[in-house]
Amino acid sequence: MSTPRSARPRPSEGSSGSLEELVEAPMSLRERKKLKTRQTLRREAFRLFAEQGWEATTVDQIAAAAEVSPATFFRYFPTKEDIVLNDEYDPVMAAAIRARPADEPFLTSAREVLVGLVRRIAEQEREELYARMRLTASVPSLRLRMLDAAGQPRTMMLDLLTERAGLDTPTLELRITAAAVAAALTETSLYWADHEGRDDLADLLDRALAHLQSL
After folding, report:
1. Is 68 found in the same domain as 146?
2. Residues 6+ apart with CB under 8 A from 199
3. On the chain, which terminus has fewer CB atoms closer than 10 Å, C or N?
4. What pTM did the predictor assign?
5. Measuring CA to CA, which residue among 59, 73, 34, 57 is closest to residue 139?
6. How many structural domains is the chain composed of?
7. CB atoms within 10 A of CB 201
8. What is the pLDDT of residues 106-139, one digit of tens each?
9. Which residues, other chains included, contact 54 with Cβ-Cβ below 8 Å and sequence gap of 6+?
């Protein structure tokens, strides 16, 4: 029997357990092995970026450091930019938003889930998160990809909004809402990186989403 939506635990309630456990929970053994390879590739990539810079680091070097072939790298990340811009948290985020009460305003659901998840990420993986955001803010190709309106956060939010509304295709209003939430995530992350990570990222995101709710 499935748990009623209103009774399911929220990401902001009870922060015990690692992010790795949170991501791996619904995965098969095969999927977990794939996740480990993705994480190894990302870890080695960020080590190399820190040592020799973005431009000087090649896909071949990252693959060699992770002890896989370049072909394997491209099975996990279509481009070098994707290793910075993509992560494993979107499915967790989507599941948590779906678990919120169905009659709750979407911006309230998004704010509860996103702020709670970002707080956990910042607490447990702050150094990697800051490195990712600094690279994104400083490398033109990464910044441009992140600002792309057709990016993954917007697509995910639009799918969730359309699903919650019980529609087959999104309305104009749903598209605007999805774009606004995705923009809040993007601009908050870039603002945090541009200001050298001095502020609390989760608090900044909460402030950004509260602003959207007030409009």
Report:
1. no
2. 192
3. N
4. 0.79
5. 57
6. 2
7. 22
8. 999 999 999 999 999 888 888 888 988 999 889 9
9. 135, 139
